[in-house]
Write a structure and sequence with these properties.
alpha+beta; Rossmann fold; elongated
Length: 133
């Protein structure tokens, strides 16, 4: 399904995901590129969030979706995602992801699962994740 979206809205979304010059760098919004060849991993991850903001799916599974980004970009992207009606599940190693979720299912080094509250996980921030279990 292709939605008609105004160029101004697309440029606004690129601004939201911290890619304000992407269209200009590659010759406009109609440019077709192999993004894996021309964008850094962090830029690719931000572009993926832009796609989520454009398409606003009912569900999204994010696997290490911000692993190549700094904490500030991660926070901004998840903040924008939380404004949608999208239910999302994140898989990742960063403890900071807990702040954007209602539940955390943690796999420990002994292959045991533990359901934790995001607050509980964030309170262990001083310890390495492997010691926090």
């Amino acid at each position: 399904m292709q939605a008609e979206i105004a160029d101004e809205k697309l440029l606004q979304i690129l601004q939201q995901v911290n890619l304000p010059d992407l269209a200009e760098r590659f010759g406009g919004l109609e440019a077709e590129q192999d993004w894996g060849d021309v964008l850094s991993l962090g830029e690719q991850q931000r572009l993926t969030f832009a796609r989520l903001l454009v398409n606003q799916p009912d569900y999204a599974i994010l696997d290490e979706a911000t692993s190549a980004l700094d904490i500030e970009n991660e926070a901004s992207l998840y903040h924008h995602l939380q404004t949608l009606q999208t239910t999302f599940v994140s898989v990742g190693h960063r403890r900071t992801l807990a702040a954007y979720h209602q539940h955390v299912l943690q796999l420990d080094q002994n292959q045991h699962w533990q359901l934790r509250s995001p607050t509980d996980l964030l309170e262990t921030v001083a310890k390495p994740l492997s010691e926090a279990v």
